[in-house]
Automatic annotation (TrEMBL):
<dbReference type="Pfam" id="PF00047">
    <property type="entry name" value="ig"/>
</dbReference>
<protein>
    <recommendedName>
        <fullName>Ig-like domain-containing protein</fullName>
    </recommendedName>
</protein>
<keyword id="KW-1133">Transmembrane helix</keyword>
<dbReference type="Pfam" id="PF13927">
    <property type="entry name" value="Ig_3"/>
</dbReference>
<dbReference type="InterPro" id="IPR050831">
    <property type="entry name" value="CEA_cell_adhesion"/>
</dbReference>
<feature type="signal peptide">
    <location>
        <begin position="1"/>
        <end position="25"/>
    </location>
</feature>
<dbReference type="InterPro" id="IPR007110">
    <property type="entry name" value="Ig-like_dom"/>
</dbReference>
<dbReference type="InterPro" id="IPR003599">
    <property type="entry name" value="Ig_sub"/>
</dbReference>
<dbReference type="InterPro" id="IPR036179">
    <property type="entry name" value="Ig-like_dom_sf"/>
</dbReference>
<keyword id="KW-0812">Transmembrane</keyword>
<keyword id="KW-0732">Signal</keyword>
<feature type="domain" description="Ig-like">
    <location>
        <begin position="119"/>
        <end position="210"/>
    </location>
</feature>
<dbReference type="InterPro" id="IPR013151">
    <property type="entry name" value="Immunoglobulin_dom"/>
</dbReference>
<feature type="domain" description="Ig-like">
    <location>
        <begin position="307"/>
        <end position="393"/>
    </location>
</feature>
<dbReference type="InterPro" id="IPR003598">
    <property type="entry name" value="Ig_sub2"/>
</dbReference>
<feature type="transmembrane region" description="Helical">
    <location>
        <begin position="435"/>
        <end position="456"/>
    </location>
</feature>
<keyword id="KW-0393">Immunoglobulin domain</keyword>
Amino acid sequence: MKKHHTLYFLPILALASLPMMLGEADSLHPVLSGPDRAYLNTRVVFWCSTPGLSSKVKYRLIRDRRFLVGTKVSPKGDQIATFPLKVKAASDGSYHCKATAGESTGFSNRIKLSVVTPPSNTRVTSEPSPPVVYEGSRIRLSCDAEQGSHLNYTWYFNRKEITSSNSGFSIAGNKLVMEKVTLEQEGNYNCIVWSVVQNTSRYSTSAEVKVTVKVKISKPEISISVFKDGDNYLGNVTCWSSTGSPPVNFSLLLDDKEVRSITVTDSLAAWFDVPVVIGLNMGEAQCQGRTQVQDLKSETLTLDIVPVGGDVRVEVDYLYTAEAKLTAAKLSCHISRGTFPHFSWLLNDSILMSESQDNFQPQTDLSHRKQALILSKLSPENSGYYRCRARDSYEISGPWADSAAVLIQITDELLNSMAQASSCIETSQKLFTEVIMIVFCCFFLLMLAAASACVYKMFDHSQGFTISFHLSEPESQSVGLQSGTLSSDVQNQVNPAVNPGLKLNI
């Protein structure tokens, strides 16, 4: 029976002793101090103490609540126990200190130690790779360190730091993004990876990466020239774009079918030789230009080589300055047909060599099948019979088609008369200017005289006006002044110095 009663009281005794056990556990309050970050393979120190405790105390440094790092015994609790530690990768974790003095035990605060690995072997990668993009495309650069933790990133463009104030750049973590790259963003990029522990920084710098920005090609253009190869004729078709960045793949299409193709890497033009038959329509030719992001076609060109022939004529136009002075003569040679004409000019049946004569300047317009000859220096020596002739440019020994001769007669009398006429025009202009000035002066004087007369009449008329006086007294008085006659009494009333209460209304 007693044994049963004893069993009933055991739980009660255990609960009664729990406050005493808790009181002993809470009687010690150790304090742990130390770093929260440390570089890998460096040494750090943790300190543990129990302020106010004078008895002997035993300290244990524990990581993550279960790994014993070290044990120290201090003769007095308020003396600091040191725990040196070489930082390894496994040293990362939560540390606390357990203090034991006799039957009393206490636990310190916790410190989370982060092991920082310094960055190393940093490099820049790109997407796309290699970093070659067209204007307006997207490119992303990444700054990657082979190893490292707790890293920060700084980007540089042509060795100048990229900040948030630089437009066109977006930085997120180790990424540098250009959504729509421009030509101004072409250049060298590199990054620096760094970390900081207790005011100590470690850096790793990447090599520079060249970002190339290409220009999109303009719409291709097409042209053709013809030359003779033995008894056959070949058409040399030129395909080109005025702007853009190579490489470009040019193709020659004939009636929408590709017949030739070539990729150029150092220019924006390509040439294709195709056989042609003079006088026969060979179809519609077209150039196609392709890049990684473009596929463009030129306008069509009809491969119809028409030989020179038909009527050839010369037209003459005289060119004058703004002062009506004869300054040049323009002779135009027209042919009725011919795709590739070659022109020649003759003066008095002698061929003009324009390359050696400055006063003859030929200007060819193949689209309108004509050539103009400018006589820039008019003199009697240039007078004579002019005519032109034309042949096919691809037939060096081919027949010529001649025009009729046109007489251009330039004499000293003509030049003098033109000079006199120019002088007369200049004199007339000066005379006209002088007449305008005289008319303006006369008009101004007339207006001045009219204005003077009006002013004089106004002053002359003002001598006969009537003045009414209104006194401030209850009894008003009106006085009329005629022809400047005033009595002395009225003058005294008008004078404000004599009668200050008088109001004058006109």
